[in-house]
């Protein structure tokens, strides 16, 4: 275990930015903190860094309680969204800065700093730009310098706060792949903040989904995409469709109709969630979710269909093969292949 966040609460002027957050980060993992604006991602990152102190709870680095340790003592490397490079320093001096300001005994010689810095610049594919100033670099290049600078101190943990947030979509995509490659080579324990689900799913070993100061789910990209454990995760990651249902003796009911879907949940009202693309079209309407097509449009290789569910005013969207006629006004019936029901209060 590299970092353990244990029961952390953080209040700013009585405003709870994080409630009882616990998270274990393994050595060498690439972790994404994913959530909407204000969900507490940056606060959690800053707590791990030592830039904030918890109101309650603790942060451990290995077995050691790091809660009272400074940023320097924790030995973390940072990259922020807005490149915080020193404008008056060349690229190579920027990379070597963290080593140069180390206290006496730990400070490598000038030659050693230069050697390590140019090695790192080579590593982030910026050889040849050593003598440039930040203003003479593109946004993507600056972020690569920032990453080289963060790695120069050989941090125990690398913390990246929306590192590609200020870049355009194309550069962002390139840097994403590049970061993954760099991580695979260095195996630095890395935590990065993003509100972009694609970025989190593509890059991370595990995704921490946050909402309103709480962790909603922690899992591999496949787990959080295929098995969301809350309505929030269903809606925030990928697309979801939902319908009001009830559970009666272990069977899901839509209105009075018993569907061919079993649940172990207690009887009561609930909401059925599924992915619009993850459905099977079926003949007949018995035990199916059946309705009338009210909108049908082709989207690339598939067709998006909106159905008004029989006997209700509910509407639901599903995705079916593009060659299906699905004419407006025609009946259609389906069942989701994977789904979850959450209690109404969830
Ligand atoms: P974003 O994606 O917009 O950066 P976030 O998920 O990183 O959002 P945080 O920056 O961690 O969210 O903020 C969580 C909550 O705590 C927000 O409501 C924010 O307004 C509040 N907050 C954060 N820092 C402070 C502070 N220094 N003082 C007061 N409130 C703060």
From TrEMBL:
The keyword Heme does not apply. Keywords: ATP-binding, Cell membrane, Membrane, Nucleotide-binding, Sulfate transport, Translocase, Transport. One of its GO terms (molecular function) is ATP binding. It holds the Pfam family ABC_tran. SUPFAM superfamilies: MOP-like, P-loop containing nucleoside triphosphate hydrolases. SMART domains: AAA (SM00382). InterPro entries: AAA+_ATPase, ABC_SmlMolc_Importer, ABC_transporter-like_ATP-bd, ABC_transporter-like_CS, Mo/tungstate-bd_C_term_dom, P-loop_NTPase, Sulph_transpt1, TOBE-like. Gene3D superfamilies: P-loop containing nucleotide triphosphate hydrolases. Residues 3-237 form the ABC transporter domain. Belongs to the ABC transporter superfamily. This is Sulfate transport system ATP-binding protein. It comes from Phyllobacterium ifriqiyense.
């Amino acid at each position: 275990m590299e970092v353990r966040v244990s029961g952390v609460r953080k209040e700013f002027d009585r405003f709870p930015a994080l409630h009882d957050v616990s998270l274990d980060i393994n050595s060498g993992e690439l972790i994404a903190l994913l959530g909407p604006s204000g969900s507490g991602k940056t606060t959690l990152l800053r707590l791990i860094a030592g830039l904030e102190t918890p109101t309650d709870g603790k942060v451990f680095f290995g077995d050691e309680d790091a809660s009272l340790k400074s940023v320097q003592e924790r030995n973390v490397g940072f990259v922020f969204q807005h490149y915080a490079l020193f404008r008056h320093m060349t690229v190579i001096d920027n990379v070597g800065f963290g080593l140069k300001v180390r206290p006496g005994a730990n400070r490598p010689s000038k030659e050693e700093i230069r050697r390590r810095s140019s090695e790192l610049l080579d590593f982030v594919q910026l050889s040849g730009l050593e003598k440039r100033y930040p203003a003479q670099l593109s946004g993507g290049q600056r972020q690569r310098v920032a990453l080289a600078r963060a790695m120069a101190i050989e941090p125990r943990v690398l913390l990246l706060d929306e590192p590609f947030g200020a870049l355009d979509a194309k550069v962002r995509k390139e840097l994403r792949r590049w970061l993954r490659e760099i991580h695979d080579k260095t195996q630095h324990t890395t935590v990065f903040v993003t509100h972009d689900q694609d970025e989190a799913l593509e890059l991370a070993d595990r995704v921490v989904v946050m909402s309103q100061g709480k962790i909603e789910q922690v899992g591999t990209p496949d787990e959080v995409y295929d098995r969301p454990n809350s309505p929030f995760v269903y809606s925030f990651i990928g697309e979801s469709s939902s319908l009001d249902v009830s559970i009666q003796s272990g069977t899901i009911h839509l209105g009075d109709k018993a569907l061919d879907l079993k649940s172990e949940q207690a009887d009561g009202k609930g909401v059925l969630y599924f992915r619009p693309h993850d459905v099977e079209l079926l003949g007949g309407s018995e035990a199916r979710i059946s309705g009338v097509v009210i909108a049908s449009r082709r989207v690339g290789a598939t067709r998006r269909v909106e159905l008004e569910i029989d006997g209700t005013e509910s509407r639901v969207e599903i995705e079916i093969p593009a060659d299906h006629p699905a004419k407006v006004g025609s009946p259609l019936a389906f069942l989701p292949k994977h789904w979850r029901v959450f209690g109404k209060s969830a």
